[in-house]
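Lecture notes, continued. The same structure-token format from the folding unit now serves as the input rather than the output. Read the line below as a description of shape only.
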């Protein structure tokens, strides 16, 4: 499949369109991981699931994310970024359709697992593609569009699920409602598939494959002739000095950024973000609110998540990655510590909501988008796909652990919600210290300059 010819538009419009289309992969990521929360209770009733089966139903997509992330890097390095994104779109659409029509619980699990493969793969490919096509002056803002897509997808599921629930009574939702919730994801997946034919292949992948003229044309459209000449020279020099292979992940200049990326991604999950995203209604009900109050609190959490991701987009190329990470992890630590104190002293209502919202805002401004962005920036071209796979795999393994352990910790008489959130606060404190000691600034530097800096140091 040849790369789409670059259109005659301004560089900003060209890369904004390519990054915007790719960010739909983030939207599908967010929608697919969150939609099950509204469908789960009806699915449980329809299929007479026991508690163990209910847990498996909720985790089935995450279990697909792990192999999806694991193999996407190798696939994208061989087939190209765009072809792999097309495959992700097919997986999303197939999962949405099959999730809406299962006859048995096993068929449902297979459908959700297929969606998980798409989520895991796109979580690795989308940030890499945006980083590789974006000039350094816009790369931070464009890179955070992926996270914006995720949080919008999560936010919209609240309203999609609520709207579907309102179409019928309890019996209708138990029979058909949950099918519409899950099946609706096929629509944006098909839109994503169609729009991908209008975006170009990654110029860095093309250059590695010896397709220099195509790469140069795309780089010219993305930043002008001078930018293209400078970038192509740097890419060719990097290709000359690089060797491919998984063993290269352990060589000088790659292993250190890999360790930093893996630690950042682990911290981004073990701070408890998805404990709140997956169980927000349960948390707010435990804090003393009823079901309606819990739903509105979840809406506020989703809205703050979106708004503060926009703050990250506005600041990441001005303030830089490192200052935002330091501010964000510091606020996370204080906010989560206060959430634990609220549960310890049995305070609830508005104070609890404000503390959780502060944590969500801090995460959405820093660790959420910048974790993905940093990982997409720091690896040399030839191993970027495989290294990003390791980082994405870390996210999904960590996410699964948090999703499985939160109910056990939260409901345990020996631990309970207060200590659970203090554990998450401690993780945020450690992540602040880690950023302070280990994470360099990448603002305003080309991908090749960042890659070379690890060898110099």
């Amino acid at each position: 499949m040849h790369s789409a010819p670059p259109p005659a538009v301004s560089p900003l419009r060209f890369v904004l369109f390519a990054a915007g289309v790719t960010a739909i992969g983030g939207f599908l990521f967010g929608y697919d991981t969150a939609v099950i929360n509204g469908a789960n209770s009806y699915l449980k009733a329809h299929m007479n699931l026991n508690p163990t089966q209910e847990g498996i139903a909720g985790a089935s997509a995450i279990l697909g994310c792990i192999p999806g992330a694991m193999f996407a890097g190798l696939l994208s390095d061989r087939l190209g970024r765009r072809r792999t994104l097309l495959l992700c779109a097919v997986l999303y659409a197939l999962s949405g359709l099959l999730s809406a029509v299962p006859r048995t619980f096993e068929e449902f699990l297979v459908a959700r697992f297929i969606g998980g493969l798409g989520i895991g793969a796109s979580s690795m490919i989308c940030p890499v593609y945006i980083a590789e096509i974006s000039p350094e002056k816009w790369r931070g803002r464009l890179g955070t569009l992926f996270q914006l897509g995720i949080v919008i997808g999560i936010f919209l599921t609240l309203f999609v699920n609520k709207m579907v629930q309102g179409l019928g009574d309890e019996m209708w939702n138990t029979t058909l409602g949950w099918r519409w919730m899950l099946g609706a994801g096929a629509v944006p997946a098909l839109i994503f598939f169609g729009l991908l034919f209008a975006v170009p292949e990654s110029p860095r992948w093309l250059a590695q494959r010896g397709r220099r003229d195509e790469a140069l044309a795309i780089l010219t459209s993305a930043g002008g002739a001078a930018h293209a000449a400078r970038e192509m020279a740097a890419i060719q020099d990097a290709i000359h000095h690089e060797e491919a292979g998984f063993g290269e992940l352990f060589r000088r200049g790659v292993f250190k950024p890999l360790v930093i990326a893996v630690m950042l991604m682990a911290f981004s999950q073990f701070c408890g973000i998805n404990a709140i995203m997956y169980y927000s209604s349960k948390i707010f009900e435990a804090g003393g609110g009823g079901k309606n109050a819990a739903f509105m609190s979840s809406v506020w959490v989703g809205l703050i998540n979106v708004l503060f991701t926009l703050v990250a987009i506005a600041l990441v190329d001005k303030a830089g990655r490192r200052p935002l990470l330091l501010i964000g992890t510091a606020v996370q630590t204080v906010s989560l510590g206060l959430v634990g104190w609220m549960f310890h002293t049995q305070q609830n209502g508005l104070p609890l909501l404000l503390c959780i919202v502060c944590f969500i805002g801090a995460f959405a401004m820093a660790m959420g988008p910048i974790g993905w962005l940093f990982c997409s920036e720091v690896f040399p071209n030839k191993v970027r796909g495989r290294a990003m796979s390791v980082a994405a795999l870390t996210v999904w393994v960590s996410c699964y652990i948090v999703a499985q352990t939160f109910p056990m910790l939260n409901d345990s008489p020996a631990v309970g919600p207060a200590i659970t959130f203090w554990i998450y606060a401690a993780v945020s404190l450690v992540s602040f210290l880690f950023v302070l000691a280990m994470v360099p600034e990448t603002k305003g530097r080309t991908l090749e300059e960042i890659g070379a800096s690890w060898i110099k140091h």
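Point for the exam: The radius of gyration is 22 Å.
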